[in-house]
Specification:
about 290 residues, 11 helices, alpha/beta, six-stranded mixed β-sheet, globular, five-stranded parallel β-sheet
Length: about 290
Amino acid sequence: MAVRPLPKLIALDLDGTTLDPTGRPAPATIAAIHRVVEAGIKVVFATGRTYGESRGVIRSIGHTPPSVFAGGANVVDTASGQSLHTHPMPGDTARRLISHIASLGHAALALQDTAKAGRDYWVSHHAPLHRETTDWFAEHDCVWDVHEDLTIAPHEHTIRIGVVDNTALVQAVHASVKALFPAEMLNCHTLTLDNGVSVLECFDPRVNKWLGISQLAADWDIPASDVIGVGDENNDLPMFRSVGLAVAMGNARPQVKEKAHLVIGDNRSDGLAVFLNSIVDGRVFSPTG
């Protein structure tokens, strides 16, 4: 096997990858990230979380680079909190989607570009929020307000629209949305949490993690072949299709492992830390080697 040269950029998912099962970065992972950065490699985070929901864990790592949030819809300089690249949903699409969600008896969560809107979420008034939603907002100090009528709002800063409820109801909403909004209008997917609650997330159709990563790579004049992407969930697949080396965690979904060039240890056993240290030590090999 030929030793792979050092990459120029590594993009790390947060939950299930950089964070352990308790939602915290392990000390070994923190140390490995700093070691990679000291070796001259750029390390960014690429997560489905919003910037506001990520601030605490990123600060605990002690590395605050420009990073990709909300599944690629928002690129933020985490040192300053300023948005670098944003991909809002078209206003007409957002209003139509929220009206449809309301007709199904759900409140819509309209994620905002926080730096521009001054809040993390507008929430529609059509139904009470799920308890897990308000608990999540409180845990991450999210700034949110109930909007008097999101079905007529301008939505110039809306980057994602979501629904949170039990899995069966969210799956029903997802099926209904897919039937009404073709893929060229919306990029939608669902996530199921360990507590049985599911989340529907809808974006502009261009949005995925690779969109945000590629913008940072272009800012730094780094080709895709010099980028490593590490993740565990379905929303990491667009990144896997484009990076030079796609790395799945040992705890990743089976379909994510199938699309990876390399599968490493899981997030319970410092799998990411071992992998990152192997890069600096020159022990990462070409997937074709």
